[in-house]
Design a protein that fits this description.
By secondary structure, the protein is an alpha/beta fold. It has twelve helices and 21 strands. The structure holds pyridoxal-5'-phosphate. Pyridoxal-5'-phosphate binds near residues 239, 276, 278 and 279.
Length: about 425
């Protein structure tokens, strides 16, 4: 079932026509479907429900919106965080500290202390020194920090180079060859309650083979650590499963993934943690935008929309593809370059793309923007952060305002706000 579909020729989020949202809050705007979020969240947990012991920590970096986190918390998700800001958001959303996992290659002292004080459930150590420092902080508080060691299995996830994390040359995890000795040393620290291992080899992974290979390496390490006398009770398998961005993309099914996990981990006898991000929220969001101009180009026209790389960075960052579709398609198509208004040549969403025909003033969407969309937004070119809206059935709610960060400190009293009234869609056409 698609939660973004056409009704009477108009693209809707669940039962809400997207023009209604554009009229209410203006464009660009990130629109999420609560139904799609629930469906994806439940599909993931129910696929893995037969595992003896599993915990689910949503990767907050994919979508830190409070309404999204609250919905996921209600469905049994904890949080995988990478910063103090994400910790605050997770706790504010009602996620129990015990269900928070702290990943991240550069946790500051402040972040480590705050997470200890909050009583989070698991620190994923990225280097030996981090373990030593964390142990000291915990000892001073008279506690022991629950931790696992993140290992780099030296497996290429077969995804874009910039979202590959499992090769030994990357900054993430500790080299698997030195992991057993490091584990021996860390396990002796009073302030650490070292319970096992973690890995994460990358994002938007479209093939189960590298995941399986990585999990097998971790399985061998579990055996080796047990042979050295360690009690291993936890393994964190990270996230990484991809989603279909293009109509022709085929991704591994959750059933196949769950079967692979069950097969590989059968004898591990540990509690498994999963840190899914993209697969939970990616398909549950669209970025709604309005065409500002259709500008003639040398080869193809430029469809210049009011969303830009500051609203959706993935295309500029890693040439990512997001399907573009008219909100009221008329059956005609065109070949065009799709561009944002930001003053960067790279502010392009697509080049030489066959798309729905659009004219100035029309609404369109970029699909599959619910993960690493608003999460990566910036205010570059002094563009406000776009609002976010959550649709549930036939109702919708503003779950993040249109804001221009840092603006308030310089704005003088009585100066007009940068966020104007919602644009009503009446766009003058050139004579
Ligand atoms: N866990 C860690 C440690 C990550 O770095 C990431 C993202 O790269 C994730 C989980 C979530 O990955 P994904 O959104 O691909 O599921």
């Amino acid at each position: 079932m698609s939660f973004f579909d056409y009704r009477d020729g108009v693209l809707c989020a669940e039962s809400v026509p997207l023009p209604t949202i554009a009229d209410a809050v203006g464009t660009p705007v990130h629109v999420y479907s609560a139904g799609a979020l629930r469906q994806a969240a439940d599909a993931f947990t129910s696929a893995l429900r037969d595992l003896p012991s599993a915990r689910f920590a949503f990767a907050v970096k994919a979508n830190p919106n409070g309404a999204v986190l609250r919905l996921l918390a209600q469905r049994g998700y904890g949080a995988d965080i990478v910063s103090g800001g994400e910790l605050r958001r997770a706790l504010d959303a009602g996620i129990a500290p015990a269900n928070v996992v702290f990943s991240g290659v550069g946790k500051t002292d402040r972040e480590l202390i705050d997470a200890l004080e909050a009583g989070i459930g698991q620190f994923n150590l990225e280097l030996e020194e981090e373990g030593r420092v964390l142990a000291q902080f915990a000892r001073r508080r008279g506690s022991r920090a629950p931790a696992v060691l993140r290992v780099n299995p030296d497996i290429d996830g077969g995804t874009h180079a910039k979202i590959t994390t499992g090769r030994r040359t990357s900054k993430f995890g500790v080299d698997i060859a030195g992991a057993p000795d490091m584990y021996d040393r860390l396990a002796q620290l009073d302030g650490l309650d070292l319970q096992g291992l973690a890995l994460h080899i990358g994002s938007q992974i479209s093939n189960l083979e590298p995941l399986e290979a990585a999990y097998r390496r971790i399985g061998e390490l579990v055996l080796e650590l047990r042979a050295r006398g360690h009690t291993i009770t936890r393994v964190d398998l990270g996230g990484g499963l991809g989603i279909p961005y293009r109509p022709e993309d085929v991704m591994p099914s959750l059933t196949d993934y769950a079967a692979m996990v069950a097969r590989v981990t059968r004898d591990w006898n540990v509690c498994l943690t999963f840190e899914p991000g993209r697969i939970i929220t990616g398909l549950a969001g669209v970025l709604l935008t309005r065409v500002i101009w259709v500008k003639p180009g040398v080869t193809h026209p430029f469809v210049i929309v009011d969303a830009a790389m500051n609203d959706l960075a993935r295309p500029a960052l890693y040439d990512a593809y997001h399907r573009f579709a008219a909100v009221r398609p008329d059956g005609r198509t065109m070949v065009a370059n799709i561009a944002g208004p930001v003053c960067e040549t790279g502010d392009m969403f697509g080049i030489d793309r066959a798309i729905d025909h659009v004219d100035r003033g029309e609404l369109a969407v970029f699909h599959a923007t619910g993960a690493y969309g608003a999460a990566m937004a910036s205010s570059y070119n002094s563009r406000p952060l776009s609002p976010q809206v959550m649709v549930d059935g036939d109702t919708f709610e503003l779950v993040a305002d249109r804001t221009l960060p840092h603006d308030t400190s310089t704005r003088r009293q009585n100066e007009p706000r940068t966020t104007g009234p919602a644009f009503n869609g009446a766009m003058p056409q050139a004579a």
